[in-house]
Here is the input.
Amino acid sequence: MRWYLPLIGLALSLQTSLALAAPAAGLLARLKLPLPKPAAPLFAANGLGQTSLNTQLSASPEDLLIRLKTELTAQGYKERQINTVVGAWGFNLVMEPPGGTSVDGTPADKVALLVAQAAAIAPGRLNLNLRFEASGR
Here is the structure.
């Protein structure tokens, strides 16, 4: 019985000293998004965790981009402005997760980024996709 105590102590110290990565699907599901209804999860072959959120909605690219940036910034995400592009065709938005957030499956030499892309599919109608991708530092 006494030999259990050192093992329990070791387990507790490892648990508190190692940062555990969160699954991409869980992080995506917890996002608060300015959408009329929740975005549906779907398979994403190139995304971390092979999952993304996808929805279609009525909005202009400019208005949706502003609303997404505002909401995600309030949740601790930080925009990579160099990657932000917007036009009548849609937009591309890349944001760094809040400090201390790590996404499961991110290679050691990369960082996880939240990618939001919208594509115009009809006048005033957008398809929005959000996913985590691994990128160089």
